[in-house]
From TrEMBL:
Protein name, UniProt field: Maltose/maltodextrin transport system permease protein
Keywords for the protein's UniProt record, in alphabetical order: Cell membrane, Membrane, Sugar transport, Transmembrane, Transmembrane helix, Transport
Gene Ontology CC annotations of this record: maltose transport complex
Record's function text: Part of the ABC transporter complex MalEFGK involved in maltose/maltodextrin import. Probably responsible for the translocation of the substrate across the membrane.
Transmembrane helix among keywords: yes
Organism: Ornithinibacillus caprae
Gene Ontology molecular function, alphabetical: ABC-type maltose transporter activity
Phylogenetic lineage: Bacteria, Bacillati, Bacillota, Bacilli, Bacillales
Keyword match Repeat: no
InterPro entries: MetI-like (IPR000515), MetI-like_sf (IPR035906)
PROSITE patterns: ABC_TM1
Entry superkingdom: Bacteria
Cell compartments where the protein resides: Cell membrane
């Protein structure tokens, strides 16, 4: 009895296993075995076309990705690296098609075992239109995304593990894979270590202080304008939004001139009245203070506009209930206004912090990250992103720039992910994500 059941089970599972094996050996052969001739031929033609058209490219690409070339001045390591990364993407697409071929053949065999008829050509086209048409329409955009976004990111990550710098650049020299040496150098070699920790500390201070000030100022002004006793609200809102209406790079250049210690209006016309002259551009501390004030000025209008709209949506009956219970202004602000505002705006506020962490424009346009600091290869006001720019375009330290960029990306993604997870706006009812 047991043997009969085993034979019956083997006879049931044999077609699906055979179809799977045939698809593993030759793409499309499993579909042909399942009597889906047209689909099997299409998959076979696609597989053969893929191999014929990409074999040589993949061969050279994978070889170049591992070796980065073997003959100086003849092999270009950067070109080989790019070809290798593209080869990986193309190979991944081929593997996806190959896996689809195997899974489809097995599903077809199972349907055949259950006595289900094979779909006709018209039925197959209809199923593709219903299920696959959206994916087919998204495909061009996805391909562009891969080569415009994913490929540059992979290239940047790869550079962080090479020795590509101003003293070792192709085609004169070949690049080498150096593992995590660049990351180790950031915390071991004195000039890199001192610069990295100094710039990193200032980046954190800059992000937290400048962003927090613009949020606090925007929230404070939004509370004032939202007060029922305030008149001419439209005019006041228009005036407070004006800094946002002016292009940021224009405002930054104007502020750079205003803060000039020699001919700037702040020193010459305002502080000179009190016999004070502050070196805004030549002293790192005062340059940082100026940058924080400028960013507060540039950033608060957006926060003000955001909070103004949210404050008008707070239900009035909540404040009336608080008045009945004898709640003070501070208690209403703390327990009603602030939670309601944060619930609605927390994701955008998080993006404000992330944006300022990589706010290259203001640092570069104000004073290009200067003044210089003794013993460091970054300026006194450089943040990580502006330092990466200098390492890339001024000193050609591409490997270190890529390593720092990876660290920046990990920090921003980690901070944003953690804060989004903690934000009530991203929680489902019942406290689950």
């Amino acid at each position: 009895m047991a043997n009969d059941q085993t034979k019956k089970k083997n006879s049931i599972t044999q077609p699906r296993n055979l179809a799977t094996l045939l698809s593993v050996l030759v793409p499309g052969l499993g579909q042909i075995y399942n009597r889906r001739i047209l689909k099997g031929l299409i998959l076979l033609i696609v597989a053969l076309s893929f191999l014929v058209t990409t074999w040589d490219y993949l061969d050279i690409g994978i070889w170049g990705l591992f070796t980065l070339g073997t003959i100086p001045k003849e092999h270009h390591s950067i070109q080989l690296l790019l070809q290798g990364l593209i080869s990986l993407i193309v190979l991944f697409v081929g593997i996806v098609i190959y896996i689809y071929n195997i899974v489809d053949a097995r599903k077809g065999a199972i349907a055949r075992e259950e006595g289900k008829p094979n779909p006709t050509l018209i039925k197959a086209i209809t199923n593709f239109y219903d299920r696959g048409f959206p994916y087919f329409m998204v495909l061009p955009g996805l391909i562009m995304l891969i080569f415009i976004v994913v490929l540059p990111l992979l290239f940047m990550v790869a550079l962080a593990f090479t020795d590509y710098n101003q003293y070792n650049a192709p085609p004169r020299n070949l690049l080498n894979w150096v593992g995590f040496d660049n990351f180790v150098d950031l915390v071991n070699i004195d000039i890199w270590k001192d610069t990295f920790f100094s710039v990193f500390a200032w980046t954190i201070v800059w992000t937290v202080v400048a962003t927090s000030l613009q949020i606090v100022l925007g929230f404070f002004l939004a509370l004032l304008v939202n007060d029922k006793r305030i008149k001419f609200k439209r005019t006041i809102r228009t005036v407070l939004i004006l800094p946002w209406a002016v292009p940021a790079f224009v405002s930054i250049l104007i502020f750079s001139a205003l803060f000039n210690p020699t001919f700037g209006a702040i020193n010459r016309d305002i502080l000179s009245t009190f016999e004070i002259m502050i070196p805004w551009l030549s002293d790192p501390f005062w340059a940082k203070v100026a940058l924080i004030m400028i960013q507060t000025w540039l950033g608060f209008p957006f926060v003000f506009a955001l909070f103004t709209g949210v404050l008008q949506s707070v239900p009035a009956d909540m404040y009336e209930a608080a008045d009945v219970d004898g709640g003070s202004r501070w208690q209403k602000l703390r327990h009603i206004t602030v939670p309601h505002v944060l619930f609605a705006t927390a994701p955008l506020l998080i993006m404000q912090y992330a944006g300022n962490f990589n706010n290259f424009n203001i640092i570069y346009l104000f004073n290009e990250g200067n003044p210089a600091v003794r013993g460091q290869n970054a300026g006194g006001t450089d943040i990580l992103i502006s330092w990466v720019y200098k390492l890339t375009f001024q000193t050609n330290n591409y490997n270190m720039a890529a390593a720092i960029t990876i660290i920046m990306g990990v920090l921003v993604m980690g901070f944003a992910f953690y804060q989004f997870r903690k934000t009530a706006a991203f929680k489902e009812e019942g406290g689950r994500y």
